[in-house]
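In this section we walk through a basic example: taking a raw amino acid sequence and producing a predicted 3D structure, encoded as discrete structure tokens. The instruction is simple. Fold the sequence below.
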Amino acid sequence: MIFPKRVCFIFPDAMAKVIEDIREPYSGLSSRIHSVTEGPKSELARAHSYSATQELMIRKLVARENVHLSQMEHEISLIPKPVASYRKATDYAQRLVDLVAGLRCIRENGPHMTTAPVLAHQKRFDSCITLALYACEHAFRSQRALPHILPSYRKVFDAELMIDTLQTDIGHAMAENEVMEQVACAVGGLVEVARELFGTRVWLEGVDDVHFGIGL
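The resulting token sequence is shown next.
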């Protein structure tokens, strides 16, 4: 007799795929915007079309996760089902899809020189976000604890990025900062959900992460 695979086992791996598919276009967008010279219009148009296709596919994956949650609620199982935490993770993933799409539109439609004054800080922020998403992706896929210390995207954004951007007085820069702040909040929420589900692996005892310039 063949028993179907339970949804509670399908969901974490599928969520890891969703996070991976969010991380990759975000990293690609960051790579394009951090290039020194602006690419030809034909190349930008192809990148725009590819990004739009990716976003549509990710939305379908998130919708499938919501279907899995509905099935999980009605599934009879002796295994604990953290449906509430899974639902929060799905909500954060949906929020990130919307925010990354908005950030893509802002960056692609804004002047290329808009990013020049804050390029170094944007790189640090984007790197922190990418690493946090990768940690969440790995946690859901392996169902293991997150690292105790992750790069602090909040510190990079609040302490440096806002200060420099205020010097540029450009509408696109202000809109971009607002979206980036919301991205940081959504990723922070996703990290917290992953910690609730899988715990935290402490690998440095008695060390204050502030001395490293990084944190939660």
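Looking at the output, two observations stand out. The longest strand covers residues 146-147. Confidence is low (pLDDT under 50) at residues 207-216. In the next section we compare this with other chains.
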